[in-house]
Design a protein that fits this description.
This protein is mainly α. The chain contains five helices and no strands. The chain starts with a helix and ends in an 11-residue tail after the last helix.
Length: about 70
């Protein structure tokens, strides 16, 4: 499964894969695998991405089109 939304969010934020991987404390190669879908994204990484972009995990994985986190 390709995670197009994490790529779109990164590009919209004007970040390179290297920059976001440094923010997440992982290698650029690992992050690249997440974007292409060649490797599943661990829940811990989904939480970090959702927190960084201030969006819901459901949005990241395509379960909803609402970015907001329900509180």
């Amino acid at each position: 499964m390709k995670y197009q939304r994490i790529q779109d969010l990164r590009v919209d934020s004007d970040l390179s894969q290297r920059e976001i991987s440094e923010i997440l404390h992982i290698t650029q190669r690992s992050y690249s695998h997440y974007e292409t879908g060649s490797r599943g994204i661990p829940i811990e990484m989904l939480i970090r991405l959702a927190d960084y972009y201030d969006i819901s995990i459901d949005y990241l994985v395509g379960r909803t089109d609402r970015k907001e986190v329900l509180k």
